[in-house]
Inverse folding.
C-alpha cells in the first residue's frame, strides 16, 4: 500500500538529514528548513575538496546518531506504508542513550513524526512510551524552552494506542512527570525566571503539577532557600482546596539537608493561617508531611536492618558460626527486634509535637490526616502525650471514619477499649449514630463520656430525639 503522506515524510527527511550534519537549530515546526538544506549543500561541496594543509580527504566514521539519522531517512522514504510502520517501530525501539546523546535539533521533527506514524500499530508497547519520554528529555538538553512547551501542550500528549490499556495508566503518568520535569529543569538552568513564569501559565493541570514538581526538584538540588521561597510563592497564588503536592518532597529535602534544627528554623518562618475549607493549611501540611517523612525513614531503616540480618545469617552459616559472627548476629537481631516493636510516630516527631502542643498548627486534622486503617491511626494518636490537646478530637475524627466504613465493627471495637478521656469524642460519634436505631443504648454510652460539658451536650442530643 502506498503512503499517502509520502511528500510530507520526504520533506522531513531533507530537513532532518541536512540539519543533522550542519547542526542548525531547527524548531520542531520545521522553521529554518530551507537554510539548513542550503547550508548542508554548501558544506557537502566543501567536504568534497581535500584539506588545504594535509592534502588528504577527510573520511570521518559516522557516529551512532548520524547512522540513526541515515536510517531514519530510509524509513521515512519507504513508500509501502505497512513496511514503513514496521521499520519505524524497530527504529523507535533502537532509540538508545547513545543515539540520544548525539541528538541534534534537525532530528527532532522527524522523530516526532515517526512516533505519530506508529500510533495504533501492532508494534507499539511500553517501550514506545519510554522512548518518547527519553526523546523529549534529550531534546530539552539543547532547546529546553521548545521541549517544555511541547511537553505542556495537552494536544500533543502522546497516546500510541487505539484503545488505551488501563494497565499503562500509572506508567504513562510516571513517564510524563519525568520528561516534563526534565524539560522545565533544563529551562531553569538557563532562565529560572522564565521557567517559573511559564509554569505558572500552563493551563493543563497535570502538566502544570508535573512541571512544578520538576522545578522544585531542580531548586532543592541547587538552592534550597530558593526552593523554600518558591514554595511560599506557590502558596500565595493558591486558590481553592486540594493537596499541596510539593510539600512532602520539600519537607524531606529540608530534613535531609539541614536536619531537624533546620526544619524547625524553616517552620518558624512559616506563618499560620487556618485553611477554612476543610483542608490542611500550608503550615499544617508541613507538620503532617514531617511526621510522614520520619515514619518512612524509620521503615527504611527497618528494611535495611532486615537485610543486614539476612546477610549476617548467610555469613554465619558459611563460617560455621564462630563466636564473633554469632555475637554480631545477635546484636543485629536485637536491634531489629527493638525497631520492629516501635509503634506510633518516631520519638523525635513526638518531641516536636510536645514542644508545640499549644500552637494552633498542631491540630486534630494534622494528627488524623493519614489514610492508614482507622484503628491503627487511633492507636498512634492515643499513644501521644496527654499534653497534646488535639488528641481527643483526632480520635473522634478517625472513629467517625471507622464508623462510616462499618458501624457494627466500630461499636465492637469501642467496647473492647480501655476507655478514658481521649475516647470522649469517639463515644459522642457512636452515640449520634446509635440514636437512629437504639435510644436506650445511645443514652448508656452518652453517660460514659468523662468531660462534663461534652457529656451534657450529648445527653441533651439523645433526649431531643426521645431518649431517656
Amino acid at each position: 500500500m502506498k503512503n499517502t503522506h509520502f511528500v510530507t515524510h520526504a520533506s522531513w527527511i531533507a530537513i532532518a538529514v541536512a540539519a543533522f550534519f550542519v547542526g542548525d537549530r531547527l524548531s520542531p515546526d520545521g522553521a529554518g528548513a530551507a537554510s539548513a538544506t542550503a547550508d548542508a549543500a554548501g558544506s557537502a561541496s566543501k567536504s568534497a575538496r581535500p584539506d588545504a594543509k594535509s592534502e588528504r580527504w577527510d573520511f570521518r566514521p559516522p557516529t551512532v546518531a548520524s547512522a540513526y539519522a541515515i536510517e531514519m531517512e530510509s524509513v521515512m522514504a519507504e513508500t509501502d506504508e505497512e513496511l514503513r510502520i514496521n521499520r519505524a517501530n524497530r527504529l523507535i525501539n533502537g532509540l538508545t542513550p547513545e543515539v540520544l546523546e548525539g541528538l541534534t535539533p534537525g532530528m527532532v521533527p522527524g522523530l516526532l513524526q515517526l512516533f505519530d506514524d506508529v500510533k495504533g500499530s501492532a508494534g507499539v508497547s511500553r517501550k514506545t512510551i519510554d522512548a518518547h519520554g527519553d526523546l523529549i528529555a534529550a531534546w530539552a538538553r539543547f532547546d529546553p524552552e521548545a521541549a517544555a512547551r511541547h511537553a505542556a501542550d495537552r494536544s500533543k500528549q502522546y497516546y500510541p494506542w487505539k484503545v488505551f490499556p488501563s494497565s499503562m495508566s500509572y506508567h504513562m503518568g510516571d513517564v510524563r512527570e519525568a520528561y516534563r520535569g526534565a524539560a522545565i529543569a533544563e529551562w531553569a538552568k538557563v532562565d529560572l525566571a522564565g521557567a517559573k513564569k511559564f509554569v505558572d501559565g500552563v493551563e493543563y493541570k497535570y502538566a502544570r503539577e508535573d512541571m512544578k514538581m520538576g522545578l522544585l526538584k531542580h531548586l532543592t538540588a541547587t538552592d534550597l532557600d530558593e526552593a523554600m521561597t518558591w514554595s511560599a510563592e506557590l502558596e500565595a497564588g493558591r486558590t481553592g482546596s486540594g493537596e499541596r503536592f510539593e510539600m512532602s518532597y520539600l519537607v524531606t529535602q529540608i530534613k535531609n539537608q539541614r536536619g531537624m534544627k533546620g526544619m524547625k528554623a524553616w517552620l518558624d518562618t512559616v506563618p499560620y493561617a487556618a485553611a477554612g475549607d476543610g483542608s490542611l493549611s500550608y503550615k499544617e501540611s508541613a507538620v503532617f508531611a514531617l511526621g510522614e517523612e520520619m515514619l518512612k525513614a524509620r521503615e527504611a531503616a527497618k528494611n535495611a536492618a532486615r537485610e543486614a540480618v539476612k546477610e549476617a545469617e548467610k555469613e554465619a552459616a558459611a563460617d560455621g558460626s564462630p563466636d564473633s559472627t554469632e555475637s554480631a548476629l545477635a546484636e543485629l537481631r536485637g536491634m531489629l527486634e527493638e525497631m520492629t516493636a516501635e509503634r506510633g510516630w518516631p520519638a523525635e516527631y513526638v518531641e516536636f509535637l510536645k514542644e508545640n502542643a499549644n500552637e494552633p498548627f498542631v491540630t486534630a486534622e494534622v494528627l488524623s490526616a493519614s489514610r492508614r486503617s482507622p484503628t491503627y491511626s487511633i492507636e498512634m494518636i492515643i499513644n501521644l502525650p496527654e499534653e497534646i490537646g488535639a488528641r481527643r478530637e483526632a480520635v473522634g475524627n478517625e472513629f467517625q471514619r471507622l464508623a462510616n466504613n462499618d458501624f457494627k465493627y466500630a461499636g465492637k471495637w469501642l467496647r473492647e477499649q480501655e476507655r478514658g478521656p481521649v475516647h470522649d469524642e469517639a463515644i459522642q460519634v457512636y452515640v449520634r449514630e446509635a440514636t437512629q436505631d437504639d435510644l436506650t443504648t445511645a443514652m448508656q454510652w452518652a453517660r460514659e463520656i468523662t468531660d462534663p460539658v461534652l457529656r451534657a451536650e450529648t445527653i441533651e442530643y439523645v433526649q431531643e430525639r426521645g431518649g431517656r
Confidence is low (pLDDT under 50) at residues 1-7, 15-55. The first helix runs from residue 6 to 22. Residues 136 and 147 are 6 Å apart (CA to CA).
